Amino acid sequence: MSRRFTRFALSLLALGTSGAALAQTGPITQAELGAHVNVLADDRFEGRKPGTAGERLTTDYIVRELAARGVEPAASESNWLQPVALVERGAATHRVTMTRGSAQIALPADSLVLTGRDPSVSITGAPVIFAGHGAVMTDRGIDQLAGANFNGAVALILYEGPEVEGFPSFIERIKMLRAAGARAVIGIVGPDLPWAQVRRFAAGGSVQLDDPDLPEAYGAMSWEGATALIQGAGQDIERLLNDQPGSSFRSITLPVRADVQVTTEIRRFTSNNVVGRIRGSGQSGESIVLLGHWDHLGICRPEGEADRICNGAVDNASGIATLIEVAGRLKAGERPVRDILILATTAEEMGLLGAEAFARNPPVRRGSIVAGFNADTMAVAPAGTPVAVIGGTPEMHTLIGRIAIGLGRRLDIDREADIMVRRQDGWALTRNGIPTVMAVSNASDMNLLRAFLAGPYHKPDDDLSRPIEYGGAVEDANLLVALARAFADPAQFATPTAEGSGQ
């Protein structure tokens, strides 16, 4: 038996002790967090990649540990696992012909990259429509799809949206166009973005939620390609962009027809979120949610490498360890008023996909989750590091500050950590109307965080062979216990208004 596997077996034995040990209500300790990390970051879990044997080991472990602490399943009436349908799209080839009348419009080589929703897509004689950003925001009086019939069309839109709060993402906009009838959507990449980099990224394949609302084909076109296409249609791209103000923009049908064929390598599979519940005493039907992602990158190096596994000890075995121990303390303590959901998400590393799936289809009434707290990459900073708050609302910040100071913690108020707001699962919940924060030490000292990101992050080095700094993680875990109790109490945190919560 290898030394690493021995540590794994001993950790299981240690965590399989009596219920009395699991009912401990004192402060969370480094030993408790470390025991979980030693299991979840062991080579036997093969880096916890969704859709692999490592996923089953991981979700089984989380379920077992939560159940041992008295948490009940909450994905459905008696199930812990919330299925998340995923699709992996690999290499794609395409052939696109644009014609004006009987004349073919010449496009620069390699100026277009397309992916199919399904393995084979064929579109013939489709009208081509320039739709600006392709945005519909009825609450702001914006409908850029007005002015054209998109049934069966190929839509051209600007890939990047403006820096406007609440502006829909590219994926959200292409789904709007699909709902309007478009069969394909092509995003025009601005001249400031390096097209070669965009093309490599787009052509490299991706994993996404298996979403039937996507158009049949979608992708990106370089600025050079878009300029050639629109010139070939007898138009000028700058005039199309500037002749109509954004708020009153109306789509323009170009005198162009498109033939599009796309072939894509596709693998569909199902992964799972783990969802548990600590039932509250109240009758409002409201909840808060504590979450962290269980997944990592799996076997991330080719055969022949000395170490092929990205174990994800810090990212994010440390977050799952935190969730398990926080759940145990909350269950053993005074019963909360609101329910507390414990959510271990899949496919965060693939684009916050498990969190997005939960937020779109939560196992509780939509709008009933009043706040969320994300635990990610916890074991970075030493004890005594201030607390940085990432995301959330002013009302959340006020209560977090009061609770943290009451525990003797200092607050980091420079907001430098806000650069991380879209790089973690809390963002998926926030953009779906669940205000979610990270209240953590790991982003308070950005030099420490940057050193981790430039060092072992997403590499085999984030494993059990290197020392792991648990000081800040222990303090943050105990803070999360206090925050969960406070936010689960309507007397301390009132139900947010629609305006305040972003709903």
Identify the CATH class of the largest domain: Alpha Beta
Q: Identify the CATH homologous superfamily of the largest domain.
A: Zn peptidases
Under CATH, the topology of the largest domain can be stated as Aminopeptidase
Biggest sheet, open or closed, and with what strands and sense? 15 strands, mixed
Structural class designation: alpha/beta
Our Rg estimate from Cα atoms comes to 25 Å
Through-space gap between termini: 53 Å
Q: Indicate the low-confidence ranges by residue numbers.
A: 1-21
Number of structural units classed as domains: 2
Q: How confident is the prediction overall: mean pLDDT?
A: 91
CATH architecture designation of the largest domain: 3-Layer(aba) Sandwich
Describe the structure.
- This protein folds into 2 domains: 3-70 and 279-501, Zn peptidases (Aminopeptidase), CATH 3.40.630; 87-266, Glucose Oxidase, domain 1, CATH 3.50.30.30.
- The chain contains 15 helices and 19 strands.
- Helix 3 (30-40) packs across helix 9 (313-332), helix 9 (313-332) packs across helix 14 (471-487) and helix 11 packs across helix 14.
- The chain has helices at 3-15, 19-22, 30-40, 53-68, 170-179, 195-203, 223-232, 237-242, 313-332, 353-360, 394-406, 426-430, 446-454, 471-487, 498-501, and strands spanning 72-73, 81-100, 103-104, 112-116, 120-130, 136-137, 142-143, 154-158, 184-188, 206-209, 217-221, 252-278, 287-293, 298-299, 309-310, 339-345, 369-374, 388-391, 436-440.
- The protein is of the alpha/beta class.
- The longest helix has 20 residues, at 313-332.
- It is globular, with a radius of gyration of 25 Å.
- The termini are far apart.
- Helix 5 links the parallel strand 8 and strand 9.
- Residues 1-21 have low confidence and may be disordered.
